[in-house]
Amino acid sequence: MLRKFRIVAAAMCFALITLLFLDFTGTLHAWFGWLAKIQFLPAVLALNVGVVIFLVAVTLIMGRIYCSVICPLGVMQDIFSHYAGKRKKNRFSYSAPKSWLRYTVLILFIATMVAGFGAIALLVAPYSAFGRIAHNLFAPLWAWGNNLLAWIAERVDSYAFYSTEVWIKSGATFAVAAVTFIVIAVLAWKHGRTWCNTICPVGSVLGLFSKFSLFRPVIDTEKCRDCGLCGKQCKASCINTKAHEIDYSRCVACMDCIDTCKDGAISYAYRYGKKTAKSAPSQENADQGRRAFMVSAAIATGTLAAQAQDMKVDGGLAEIERAKKPQRQTPLVPAGALSLKNFSDHCTACQLCVSVCPNQVLRPSTSLMTLMQPEMSYERGYCRPECTKCSDVCPAGAIRPVSVEEKSSIQIGHAVVNLDNCVVNVDEVSCGNCARHCPAGAISMVRKDPDDPRSLRIPVVNEERCIGCGACENLCPARPFTAIHVEGHEVHKTI
After folding, report:
1. 3-state secondary structure (DSSP) of residue 459
2. Range with the lowest mean pLDDT among 147-151, 206-210, 236-240, 343-347?
3. Comparing C-alpha atoms, which of 42, 29, 125 is closest to residue 347?
4. Cα distances (angstroms) measured from residue 279 to each of 61, 73, 226, 431
């Protein structure tokens, strides 16, 4: 029964967290966004003390159920391991803990994070790794499926589905996600939870607490017939059947061993009770505590709504050729990030904000120091002042929550004009597109020749009013490089 509750809760959490990365409209985040915020590493980086204490407390009480229920990467490994088990039964065996490797990786992870090399450390962070896999591998498949349904619906005069654009935002991030997915899939297929118990820093940390958990799987030596079946089914390879011992630092509380044992020799029991199956009160309390937690995690699923948005100008009258990305001296990060340093220190590169951005402004960075962490660029859209979705969904505190009113007054950068590219000078035609669409009123059109009332007008930027939204850059008709672009600020200002 415990195993069934665990599987149901894990399936629900996995499906909902995955949908958070597929739902670019942000609809599901209003209901289930908290699932991203209770992930261990984002909670630590966001200094969400309540969540961290809760996860540690749950681990101290019931063992590493975080790894088997809440962590999407852990659940994904269980999926691979499950289907591998259909081809080959009893494929696991006890292996001695590789503590030196686990804690070496953990120490290096902490050291690189403290030293400011988070881009390297986050390669092995479980939630971040899954987020990149979901965004770069699952999301395109989801979008292609939606487009197929839209194509079919169009043929029958139905507009229930809308076609959306599918594009790879970063080749480097896609490659990292693909390699990570393959490595984890192969390890899970052949060796179960090897990644969790040798590489994953979160698993190593929670394993330290899990050693002292109050409830745990216990072997009743009086009932055990030494068949070894529990050890052959343990994907964590932590059951020493010869010594009748379980390595609780590696046990992920999947409950497979309990269902596997045909003699009832393994039970989920209070650690200070007798190690026998006759301790009925303790087992009952454990079942009830486990069930209460699982039920709280099993949330009803929502309906995913998708809506495509084409890149248009002037009310959608004409589609424009996309411009090339300018070489910015200072990167752009969203309002709420406070500064480039704060953003870099807290961002887990999970790509959740990239997934939910409706204007296709956010994309993974290709810079070595901030590799895979999001940055802003305006070739496909601009950052609308009324949109705060990235700040609403960020689980790690890299983008602090901001209101619409606050965002409209946060200066993340300022526009810079290059008159050599302006169509007013190049083609000698009147434009003013940048000034017409500036939501902050920071761009004015002035005469090229103040003394000639018939001369064409060129843009002038008031840097004190500009908020760096990129509307001017996005809608500038100059190609291949726009005549106006936004330079980021290392520290954001309120104007």
Report:
1. strand
2. 147-151
3. 42
4. 18, 35, 21, 82
Average pLDDT, the chain: 86
State the DSSP string of 376-439. E--SS----TT--HHHHH-SSSSS----HHHHTTEEEEEEEE-TTT-HHHHT-----HHHHH-T
Q: What is the pLDDT of residue 176?
A: 93
What's the rounded Cα separation, in Å, for the pair 122 and 365?
14
For residue 79, give both structure tokens. 């999926």
Strands (E) located in 223-324: 239-240, 245-246, 266-270
Give 245's strand partners: 240
Domain residue extents for the chain: 2-297, 340-494
Q: Is the per-residue pLDDT at 283 higher than 90?
A: no
Peptide bond just before 477 cis, omega within 30 deg: no
CA–chain centroid gap for 316, Å, is 32
pTM for this predicted structure: 0.84
Q: Does 474 have pLDDT greater than 70?
A: yes
Residues whose CB is less than 8 angstroms from the CB of residue 80 and which lie 6 or more positions away in sequence, other chains included: 184, 185, 188, 189
Q: CA 165, CA 148: separation in Å to the nearest integer?
A: 12
pLDDT band at 25 (very low <50, low <70, confident <90, very high): low
**135 or 293, greater pLDDT:** 135
| Tokens read off for 457 | 């007008």
pLDDT tens-place string over residues 88-124 = 888 899 999 889 999 999 999 999 998 888 888 889 9
**Structural contact between residues 206 and 53, judged by C-beta atoms closer than 8 angstroms:** no
Bridge pairing between strands 239-240 and 245-246: antiparallel
- Residues 279, 51 contacting (CB under 8 angstroms): no
Measured between alpha carbons, how far is 452 from 466 in angstroms, rounded to an integer?
28
DSSP 212: T
Cα distance between residue 492 and residue 471, in whole Å: 18
Q: How far is CA 252 from CA 63, 199, 216, 376, 387, in A?
A: 7, 15, 10, 39, 40
By three-state DSSP, how is residue 443 classified? Answer: strand
- The CATH code that applies to domain 340-494 is 3.30.70.20
What are 319-340's pLDDT values in tens digits?
556 678 888 999 999 999 999 9
Pairwise CA distance, residues 30 & 46, whole Å: 19
425, exposed or middle or buried, with CB in 10 Å at 0-12, 13-18, 19+?
A: middle
Q: What is the mean pLDDT of residues 12-29?
A: 87
Cα–Cα distance, 435 to 422 (Å, whole number) = 13
Main-chain phi, psi angles of 368, to 5 degrees: -65, -40
Burial 303-321 (b: 16+ CB within 10 A, else e): eeebeeeebeeeeeeeeee
